[in-house]
Amino acid sequence: MDISVLTQYFSILVVGICLCVGYIIKNSLDFIPNKYIPLIMGILGLIVNILINLSGGITAEVILTGLFSGLASTGLYEMFRNLINKEE
To answer: Are 49 and 9 in contact (CB under 8 A)?
Structure first.
């Protein structure tokens, strides 16, 4: 199965915002368990992408792009963390 078609549903702006908020949650807010961070990032990505595309209306593409980008930010964080830890 080729999932490269999902790259069209990727928003750099949403990923960047979610990555920064996720980093803050992970490193500063100890009362939020790590297992809830992907859920928070998915919802945040959805909200941010809806706000960005408010004039065009809420479509399935807007919803998928928001969710996909929010969840991709958690994977991107893990990739960077693993890359940094390997160098140490």
So the answer is: no
CA distance 30 to 68: 25
Enter the tokens of residue 15: 């990923």
Host H or E run for residue 64: helix 60-87
Amino acid occupying residue 65: T
50: its two tokens: 């809806």
Q: Residue 57, by phi and psi: left (phi above 0), alpha (psi -120 to 50) or beta? A: left
Q: Considering the entire predicted model, what is its pTM?
A: 0.83
Q: For residue range 34-56, list pLDDT tens digits in order.
A: 999 999 999 999 999 999 999 88
Q: How many C-beta atoms lie closer than 10 Å to residue 37's C-beta?
A: 20
